[in-house]
Write a structure and sequence with these properties.
Shape: globular
Number of helices: 10
Strand content: 5-15%
Helix content: 40-55%
CATH topology: TIM Barrel
Strand order of the largest sheet: 3-5-6-7-8-9
Structural class: alpha/beta
Order of helices and strands: EHEEHEEHEHEHEHHEHHH
Largest sheet: 6 strands, parallel
CATH superfamily: Metal-dependent hydrolases
Amino acid sequence: MIDLHCHMLPAIDDGAPSLAVAMEMARRAVADGIRVTACTPHVYPGLYENDAAGIRTAVAALQRALEQARIPLRLVVGGDVHLVPGLVEGLRRGVVPTLAGSRYFLLEPPHHLAPPRFHASIVALIEAGYVPVITHPERLDWIDDHYEVFVSLARHGAWMQLTAGAVLGRFGARVRGWSERFLDDGLVHLLATDAHDCARRPPELAAARDAVASRLGSAEAERMVAVRPTAVLADAPPESVPMPAQPAPTALPGLRGLIGRGLRRMST
């Protein structure tokens, strides 16, 4: 498996606080069946002042440490990028990291409030030639009233990445419910750990992959953790990558509204 979202680099954001924790995270990832990890620290001006050059240096240092310890995990560069003014220019200049230097990059929306012009900003990134991979939409506080925005963005070419722990219910019933809706609606492109440590948010994918396989079939689960991540690392054009299957139209009018109301009740 390939994990395209992981905060393993030590002492660079709110992820691994030390090299020792980073090494243990790498061991846990390998034991779980992960062979490649994208190191994706937050890139958030004013809070986490990371850039592509600094992340490359940190990845190279951690890779050397893994090789010396004979931990067979390959690392690639990435970033958990926040939506800020000038993002397109930062990507073009190579200051903002993409995943392994590809056209794909992780985009983390604000957790608590929907940003103004969110849809238009994401579409502009797509029109500039990038593929924004929107991270953990199922965990956003504002998803209840903005789900259709993400449906539209997926149709425009944005990708969606769910958190492994969310699929397993580790973030609560409400978040698990939204994870299942994204999955059932054929909107999920990638499954990743978004790991920050070894205890509360570990770098483990296998159990979530198996849960997705039980729901959508093993082939689609493998696409989320192996096939599409491989395409990302190869910078394959998105039109050449197998997309999630869209569900057949339901014959029950109002079913989506009933589901949405049920999910909203779960959040109260």
